Structure formats: C-alpha cells, structure tokens
Amino acid sequence: MYITCLDLEGVLVPEIWIAFAQASNIPELKRTTRDEPDYEKLMRWRLGILKEHHLGLKEIQQTIATIDPLPGAKEFLDELRSISQVIIISDTFTQFAAPLMKKLGWPTIFCNSLEVAEDGEITGFSMRIENSKLTTVKALQSIGYDTIASGDSYNDLGMIKASKAGFLFRSTEKIKADHPELPAYETFDELMGAIKNALKDE
To answer: Which residues are catalytic?
Structure first.
C-alpha cells in the first residue's frame, strides 16, 4: 500500500517567507530552503531578522491570511486523495499552516511548532523530529507502506530518494542539475501522471 508524501511550500502553496519578505519589505527574508540546505541555520537567521525589525507571529499570520494555494493545487490534492493516502510533510509550523490547510480542504500535515512569547515575539522553534521528512518516510516504510514523495527543495531530497517513487516539482535549475537522476516536473498534470504510474506498480 502506498502513501504519497508531499512538501507544502513551493508545491501546493507559495513560499510563506517570500510572501512575508515582500509584505514587510525585507528582501533578506526571501531566502528559503531552495537556497540554504541547513533548515535550522536558516530559521535561526530568520528569527534574528524578525527580532531586529520588531516583527512577530501576528505580522506573519496577517500575511499568511492573504495567501491562496497555487492555481490547481486544491484540485490536484483532491484528486490525489481519491486514489492514494496523502500526508503533507513540511518544515513549516502549526501556527503558519492552519489557514492554508483550511483552503486546501484540511489534508493531513506533519510539521513543527514555534515558541512564541506572550507579546507575540517568536523566540524559538521546536522541530518535530530530526531530519523530519526522511525520518517520517522511513517510519511509514517501517510499518508496511511504500512511499511516493515529491518536493522542490534541498530538504525534500532525502524523502524523495528514499521513496519507491520520488519526483522533483517546480524545483530550481541547480537542484535539477545536481540530481539528474530524479524526474522533474513543472505542472500538476505531469506530477499526477507520474504518481498514477507509480501507483500502478502496487
């Protein structure tokens, strides 16, 4: 039996930090896991910038409220959930994800959590588990599931490579060039076709 594991940002919804960088006019915050492979290093750097500019959870949530899923994402997810179990595995945070999950029809998501002070300052973050995407895929495999995985960034490569079928989706030219062995797709129709082909092997 298969479970399909999808990244969230860049695959189903726009990158939250890029949207916030534009809304707050702080271009440094456009840096994402497409640019920095070390997620914890990236988050510590982000929190330093937020503190410097006196910005907290409320301001980020105001931006998130304006974000809609990528065109075609909900329809893709609805169809995929009709033919496969689906889990979104993301390095985002529960405080960010909920409004987006509502717009996507409340799919299952495994993600992390922020540590937030009473005044709304984001003081830290708690990762659900080390190397969460790869670890989660391996855990699913250990209880009898084959996995299909897709994502766009460095932090998705582990789960993509460890899965029975894995695909890059709307990734960067550098990641695609560094990993020519991984099929890479740009449209939901292409990705759906690849997943359906993988499911035929079940």
So the answer is: 7, 9
